[in-house]
Amino acid sequence: MIKSIGNRFNHYYKLHPLVLILVCLSIGITVLIVLSISEGQFKMMPTYRKLDGNVDSYPFARFRNLVMVAGHSVYTSSSCEKVDKEDSWYLEPYQKHPGQAATFVTHIHKGVEIAANDDEALLLFSGGETRKDAGPRSEAQSYWIVAESKQWFGERDSVRSRALTEEHARDSFENLLFSVCRFRELTGAYPQNITVVGYDFKEERFVHLHRSAIRFPESRFFYSGTSSTQNSREAALKGEALVRTQFQEDPYGCMGSLWRKRLGRDPFHRSIPYPNGCPEIEGLFRYCGTVPYPGFLPWA
Ligand SMILES: *[C@@H]1O[C@H](CO)[C@@H](O)[C@H](O)[C@H]1NC(C)=O
């Protein structure tokens, strides 16, 4: 069969070499045109579910809003009885203050509460395996397990099934960017509204620096801040002012000291899966600059 097609091909080629070359060329060009048109159509789509063929392939397609709790530490205790004790968490020297562990639990509680009040919210705990001595356990997993041990603060039935993790972020900018990507991966679309839960003194950083860097509309971005412990506050505010300056000069955290800090927070060399899961914003992931990313963004 194949041989006979080959023979025939040979035969035609001898008879009309030019015609055959033209036919092959036009078939090739047609295929290219069809491919480029269909790709263009996909780029125009407001949501991206069809890209992957099947709506059902997104297990969380019905959620519209992202609630993100930014991780600050890894839970190291092997029991879940002392989630608000400092000994149970891996703390950097600057974090070692009585009451610090309780502030993490407050963030988790707050995230659960906000999600409980919004049926369309997906809750993400975000944070990677950032501490070598804590072992290969992520901040996100730590927060999830604490929520679990607290029975989701009375909201287990409502929230547990829509609380997931983003396990690679190494700093606050990545908490935001990676969670948005993870949201797309889970729901097939980008969030309508984003609420970030964290310390009140980080509000400025998230709302003005990180949000601006990804050009997410301010009217759809919310910050829920809780206070830090009283005795750590002064040092925290000082530290925060420094980090804010760094992000002002390097909004994507991809140069100099912010970049080095990221590397230091990845002791186990985890490969980062993104922008797999959010192909539309691949350019944003690759971008490094001091002015806002100028390319296409699905929400801007
Ligand atoms: C997003 O937030 C705005 C302002 O609070 C609200 O009016 C809107 O309904 C929210 N959208 C969704 C999908 O919840």
Bound small-molecule species = 2-acetamido-2-deoxy-beta-D-glucopyranose
Q: How many beta strands in the DSSP annotation? A: 7
Distance between the termini: 56 Å
Spatial strand order of the main sheet = 5-4-1-6-7
- What would you say the CATH architecture is? 3-Layer(aba) Sandwich
* Helix-strand pattern: HHEEEHEHHEHEHEHHH
CATH homologous superfamily (4th level) name = HUPs
Low-confidence stretches: 40-46
Quickly count the helices.
Answer: 10
Overall 3D shape: elongated
Helix content, binned percent: 40-55%
Summed over residues and divided by their number, the pLDDT gives a mean of 88
Radius of gyration: 25 Å
As for the number of domains, it is: 1
CATH topology: Rossmann fold
Top-tier CATH class: Alpha Beta
User: How is the biggest beta sheet arranged?
Assistant: 5 strands, parallel
Name the beta content range.
Answer: 5-15%
